[in-house]
Amino acid sequence: MDPGRQAMIKGWKSPRKDRDRDITAPRYDSSNRITKTSRQPPAKDNVATAAAAADRYLTQDQQAEQFIADEDKFVLKQAKKKADIRVRERRAQPIDYLAFGLRFIDSDRDAFDNDDEDVEIDIPAPEAVLQSLNEAQLRELEEDIQSYHTLEHNSRNREYWTALLALCADRRQKLKPKGPEGRAVTSVASDVDRILSPKTLEQLEALEKQIKAKLQSNEPIDTDYWEELLKSLLVYKAKASLRKVCAAIKEARVEMLKARDPEKAEALAASDGFSSVVPGLAPAPTKAVARAVAATSQPSTSAPPPGTARFASAGNEDFSQATKALYDREVARGVGEGEEIFSAEEAVPGIQKPLWADKYRPRKPRYFNRVLMGYEWNKYNQTHYDHDNPPPKVVQGYRFNIFYPDLIDKTKAPTFKIIREHGRRKGESFAPAGKEDTCLIRFIAGPPYEDIAFRIVDREWDYSAKKERGFKSSFDKGILQLHFQFKKIYYRK
């Protein structure tokens, strides 16, 4: 029995552990006692650290917003870079001149995209560019300006594009035939110009507040006159805002020229900073302007473009806002070197009315596809051609981008399958010498989207992802992307 317990039973005092303990009993060691620590409130520093860590983890919606923002930045950067190249090579479109002028004060521009010779290029004044265009060209330019305005986040750059949108719309309105009311307004236009043109941007903003207050008051006023004056004031306000940005551009160019050529810098400082003459505009390149493709899926009362008649009558295309946003973002990427727009849509074989057609209105998905073209330098081509006289380009792959933002069941990704007609199997060829077999690639999704098919060259795919344009098959943010190129065939002796 334990000596302490035995002593307690007999009425003795408990033996002292340091003197009367049983030498055969275990040694007491206070450092081996297990105790439960009391819970202490977290320190303020720990709370701040935890909050900072939580901020680093984004929700799914925040991740989606971040993805779209990064995508917009990339598209905007590429658009600016292409505009610079076209201006330097003297094949610029109106939107390129407007974007090129802004580059001298654009704080978001990559310094590696700068060229020392750019400062010496004569830039036409933005208003001169607008004055040189007809109504159809202005409509096209307005769409280009709207694309820049949507993608831009820099406040001064957005101010620039906002002013140009207002002036472009005003110029289009002036080119339209005027009715009796328009002629009446024109008769007092000189008075309006005399009142508003000398005013600064700040004075116009103050006058705008006064006119709006007068229109909202209960005073007996000529409402038509004051509304028309307010409409004119907004145009002059856009002009003043544009002058402010152009003055900053001129100042930046003068500073850059002082180190290179002081005489040119003085001449530029003495002028208004821009050329009044707009260089001859180059014809719009089919590859760079993707609106030509949009015509194949937009309803039109005129004759369809060549080769697209079989699509023009379709009336069930997807024109939702979500689809339009995805489509416009992909169009803004443009078409790279060695790529061409691909729209060889075919009828889906054996298509039947889907089972869900009574519940959901079927719609055809929109798409923006590219075909990869290039030269094949096999033994035959090396013998008969050279780089000055290259062989015909051949199809080297495809990049499909099909938009399904409104899928009912978003957990089931769209799929695709290859269809070979006439019982032909993979690896078999029915094509004559010098020709290539083709097949259909069919994209299948759930409601409310119909199946869609394209005719492609039937060759073996290269599934390597290491190459620049390697294989990619994904469905994310409502976009089905299928990118692949064909395996290269090497001939041996």
Automatic annotation (TrEMBL):
Compositionally skewed regions (Polar residues) per UniProt: 29-40
Q: Where is the signal peptide?
A: none
Q: Which GO terms describe its biological process?
A: mRNA cis splicing, via spliceosome
Could you tell me which residues belong to the region Disordered? Answer: 1-50
Q: Where is the composition biased (Basic and acidic residues)?
A: 15-24
One Pfam family, short name please?
A: Cactin_mid
Per UniProt, residues of the Splicing factor cactin central domain are 59-245
All copies of domain Splicing factor Cactin C-terminal, residue ranges: 356-493
Q: Which GO terms describe its cellular component?
A: cytoplasm; spliceosomal complex
Q: Which family does it belong to?
A: Belongs to the CACTIN family.
Instruction: Indicate what this protein is called per its UniProt record.
Output: Splicing factor Cactin
Origin species: Corynascus novoguineensis
